[in-house]
Design goal:
globular, binds aspartic acid, 17 helices, about 0% strand, single chain
Length: about 400
Amino acid sequence: MKILKIKLHWQILIALVLAVIFGYYVPTGIKYTAWMGDIFLTALKMVIVPLILSSIISGVTSMGGGKNLGRLGGKTMLYYLSTSTLAILTGLFLVNIIRPGVGIEMGLTQSVEGLTDNVGSINEILMRIVPPNIFSAMANGEILPIIFFAIIFGVFITQVDDKYKNSLTTFFEAVFEVMMKMTMFIIKFTPLGIFGIVSREVSRNAHQLADIAGGMAIYMLTVVLALGIHAFITLPLIVRFVAKAKPYQHLNNMATALLTAFSTASSSATLPLTMEAVEHKSGVSNKITSFTLPLGATVNMDGTALYECVAAMFIAQVYGIEFTFIQQILIVVTALLASIGAAGIPMAGLVMLTVILTAAGLPLEGIGLILAVDLPLDMMRTSINVWSDSCGAVTVARSENEETSVAV
Ligand code: ASP
């Protein structure tokens, strides 16, 4: 079939455009296509837990114990914290200059009942990392506890007798190889899956969005502009000068994963594609991808961090509240923590916004104001989250003197 000769990311782009047209003009046809999106997302979810578990365990054992892990962990966290902070500062800068909230009518507010039910305090969120029961964490797809368990399990594999060490290492490497093969098989269906997901979202939201978007256009533009600066200037500069690698070649390698992140609005669902692209296309070793990417998908969310800051400042502006410098620093810090605590699922960032609004003493109803336009912004910030994770993997790999295929 000729269509299969088109590169996958072009197939996805075509699927995206067709989905928008189909969802907008033939909303009744969705009942015949939505299942493709559901199966695609379910298949991705199906591979995530065994993929993360086997990849982290085999990654940690190949590092050969605690010392290397500590060094890599330190570098990875340094990258995550600094890029997220840079993203927040970009958002803060633009929202202070553009001031999109000034002159917005409160009448746009929607009701937000139920949205805040599941948010805990930052403390509770941190406590969720240690699983009381690893099997229930796996059954519920809770990624952070699985990562925590897998790291510890991997470290202790390196400390048992050679006989056990070798068989466990080989076993988890084998599981990982199989999971990667399964992932590559699922990736082939991405255009169909994305068509199903996006056409349904468009049919549900497009008409309402078109009505509201006008009044919120400047707010949306502020977010998009800030995300654009972070994605196309800040991160490429880091890849170019810190990692000494080619950012735009790497971006090209990431196209399929980024388009999937955009369409699914979920970094976690995109994780299998991110891992495949970073390892097989950009040539980062399994040791580093397996450790940095699952962690990044839940902890490192530059787009979300930036968004939290812009959204909180926007709400403050709408309510006519001026923040002092110190209060803005509080917003920066809580935005960082909220982005770390947000899960890699759709709308998680919006839910975490309640943490910031509470900390800053802003009314929670403010969320109702931005609810209607959250979906397109969620899609964009998720792509930036995944893009930053992938740049992090390249940066850490290059700092470990890995050649990769994107080195300058
Ligand atoms: N949807 C985002 C993600 O999965 C999180 C968010 O809502 O900001 O990365």
